[in-house]
Design goal:
The structure holds two protein chains of two kinds. Chain A is an alpha+beta fold. Chain A has eleven helices and 21 strands. The longest helix of chain A is centred in the middle third of the chain and has 18 residues. Chain B is 69% helix and 0% strand. Chain B is mostly helical. The longest helix of chain B has 34 residues. The chains are: A alpha+beta, B mainly alpha. At the A-B interface, helix 4 and helix 6 of A face helix 7 and helix 8 of B. The structure holds adenosine-5'-triphosphate (ATP) and magnesium ion (MG). Magnesium ion (MG) binds next to helix 3 of chain A.
Amino acid sequence: MPNPEDIARPARLHSEAPRGETPRPETLRPETPHPETLRSARMRPEQRDSERAESAEEVIRLEGIAKSFGAVTAVHPTSFSVRRGEFFALLGPSGCGKTTLLRILSGFHPPTAGRLFIDGTDMTAVPANRRPVNMVFQSYAVFPHMSVGENVAYGLKVAKVARSERQQRVREALELVRLGGMESRRPAQLSGGQQQRVALARALVMQPKVLLLDEPLSALDAKLREHMCAELVRLQKQVGITFLIVTHDQAEALSMADRIAVMNHGHLEQLDSPETLYTFPATRFVADFIGRINFFAAEVLADGTVEAQALGKFRPAQDSLPQGAATAALRPEQIVVSTTAPPKQEGRSMARGTVSLLAYYGDYCTAEIVLEGREDSTEGESEGGTEDSPKDNTGGQAKMTVFIINNTPQAREIAREGQAVWCSWAIRDLLLIPQAGGG
Amino acid sequence: MVFSRRPRQLREPFAYASKLGFRLFFLATLVFLYAPIILLMVFSFNDSKRNIVWRGFTTKYYVKAWENTGLVEAFINSLLIAVVSTIVSIVLGTLLALLLWRFRFRGKTLIEALSALPIVMPEICVGIALLVFFNRIGWPNDLPWPMNLSKIILAHITFTFPFVMLVLRARLVGFNPELEQAARDLGASQRQALFHILIPYLRPGLVAGGLLALTLSLDDFVITFFTAGPDSVTFPIKIYSLLRRGISPDINAASTVLILLTLLLAGVGVWWQTRMQKTTLYTANRPAVQ
Ligand SMILES: Nc1ncnc2c1ncn2[C@@H]1O[C@H](COP(=O)(O)OP(=O)(O)OP(=O)(O)O)[C@@H](O)[C@H]1O
Ligand SMILES: [Mg+2]
């Protein structure tokens, strides 16, 4: 039988010492390599990715990993990799297979197909206890019959780390998650947020190659969640360990992650930086799932121009679009609303409409604007509002959702139901999603 | 429509206890349940051959019971049988409970039903079945002590381990499987996860189930009667045989000892459970949400 340590130990060379041995989390990686997050204004996602691919080292690689439970396919063949030291998020709606994928990584579900590499070593068949990854469970799973200190020490104890070193590392890990001096507390005496920190410390003390977190913030209240978001980012920077977080909350993913993999129905839809995902969603699903967006039925014509419902005819910023049906998408914040007609400008387009639905959010409002038919549009004459979804303009009355920043003189004019307004936008902001990529 | 009736006054759950009728009812129940036992204990100190009139205090029947070698031997047999069958029951019951909790397999429902059968089967049937069974396979009757108790021990295991299993299965329902996975994730083998996480979680159930098995075994008469030989007598059977010669105070004395022993065991169990609960709250199945 092979020695478990040999299996768990990476074959590849890198600066990090194998787990179970000395270096402290803080000293693991003095400079944390963060993938560049700045984005030059209009660079295409494909360019950016090929640019980055060679520069970063991958710590996890999935090759056609798939998982079915009997007749149910939870994860369709999926391939991607996670880079060393990055904050990676798996984002998707409930039931899309995020947890299943995470459990494949941690070793609790054997995949039905495909291969999994952790730090260059094939780990597809390695059991959970011999994988150099650790997990923070959704229920935290803090051992109730052990004190906080015993909880954090558990993994080290099993790995037979000497007592003095163990104590030292436990203390450091607890300080890292700001639970210093709580060693002797019982989990039952801790709040939910504190239990979660124990779970974090317990995993971090093992110095994993990757820390897996399954919806770590979903059980916390809004204020604490925000705080823990910042805390997780701080921790990740401090220890330099790769974090892989599962979440269904796009705001969480956008604010924390370096890169986000968006999943839907067991498929990987898109893997990119938050900015790219938001600005250049590859599929209709991604565009819809992340942030707010307005969709318009469109058609790409033979000459490369686009004819979109309620938006008229225009030449899109993207070139080499496949001819045929497509969806034009526009984010609410890219739309300028005014009560008077804005001056005609090169590269900008406009439409008249009426404010119909206002929703108040404190610092801003969303307004749904029912657009009037455009003179140059073929489907100009709009009939009664039969459409159910305001963002999905496939027929009937065209609507768009816009943001209005509250407590401005302008807002007081616009934010009135029935107010006639003008909406204008830059044509290059119109994103076109070919039908094939739509969901 | 207007309701003119005054709303009925709500009572706290135990407010009924303040009513005289209920108090009397409680008292009657208590008397009915415990008077015979208390009477038995009291009369074990009665200085009289007959158990009818109080003639003064004495402990001589305890000495007499102690000097009755047959009774002491039967007592020791009973203790030995109870301890051995309890230990085996705990192991078997735990294994079965874990098996039924963890795995899905063909025939699982059948095993579930079968394993609970000894609880619902009339003891007399089990006793006769065991008698026939042991005769049929020709289990030796003339083994030296303590091997001559093996039949009784096996018989006791068959009806005590389902109780252990039931108690543990009830406890396992509340177990958060992520606790065990967390241990595995931190490097523990299956066996380590079992002993470090699952068994400590089950401990209150193990104590409760063990006590149940112990007391069931200690006072079992029917099944033991059919599996005991002339030289393997247990305490209840010995007392029964003594009774045929009339109720004598030394039987009272011996019974009192047994009652006190059972009470002691139960007391230890309860004390231990509350102590465990003070140090650990096992209810942390889901995290406390702030
Ligand atoms: N053990 C299992 N047996 C059968 N089906 C399962 C099992 N685990 C998951 N599934 C199915 O696989 C699909 C993906 O489940 P998964 O738990 O991975 O979703 P998720 O993305 O984590 O959702 P959520 O955000 O609700 O946690 C679901 O349709 C689910 O019903
Ligand atoms: Mg999940």
